[in-house]
Design goal:
1% strand; 319 residues; single chain; 15 helices; mainly alpha; 61% helix; 2 strands
Amino acid sequence: MSKEKSPRLRHPDFAANCDFLFALFPLAFMAIYLYGPRPAVMLAVSLLTAVLCDLVAARLRGQRYDASENSSLVFAAAFTLMLPATAGYYMVVAGVIVGIGLGKHAFGGAGSYPFQPAALAYAAVTVSWPDQIFRYPTPFTQIGLLDVSGASFTESATHILQAGGVPNIPPLDLLLGNYAGPMGATFCLVILASAIYLLLKRRIRLSLTLSFLITCAVVSLLNPRSLVVSRLTLTMYEMLSGALLFAAVFLLGETVSAPKNRLARILYGVLTGFLTMMFRIYGSYELGVCFALLLSSAFSGYLDRLCSRITFKRRLRDV
């Protein structure tokens, strides 16, 4: 009698990662709509590199490659969508190798990494190629698949804010993402729809996302970078430009590096929001949220232990 092969079990986070990829798909479509086919090629290169990193890591560990452990695809796609549409393919490959190869597998693989791999990947390419990372093409400009010299570039809203100016972008264009910036992270209405989908699927925590965004808004109101317009107008530009909303949903929503305790998640969101605005206001790079997330991740375990003790003592008093 022939022995029947036992069915392979899917990774526990397979469905959650599929939901994140599904939520990222509309943003990828919008990037292709604004900048042509190049973002699609960049995403293909990114996802292929992520799979190769997983294959190499499995071979080095002497393990069988598990295609259902698809978190690397989420990290690679999220990282790539934060890049300008003119970023070199070598930057995509280098960022994914750092984020997946070092940020994920060097710490033990899925569920073991202390830092958000997509944030680590973006921070690595920012430090390595700052002049190219913050050069954003004008929407609907012609960008070649191999040659981007013909693209027209313009200053991003975050760069104008960093210089003490005020962007001249209509509110509707801010919501629709019709301005120069990260190729898949400026579409606020699409990001909001993706966030609602992920909340309904219980893939992200509202307490963490809201505490982060509220802290960013409060810091912006109390410490405006320009006095030319009202604080509310300036806060609108701070919250809706760049990759702030994108990071709140797709980077902070990652559950491994974030605290598990509810109170700890709120404090984690507050800390990340405060650090994000400090990097934005006083730092050298426009998108400080990735650096802030890497720094606050170092306190994730401590916040979990501290808040767990507080919660336990409170329950003892209530008994």
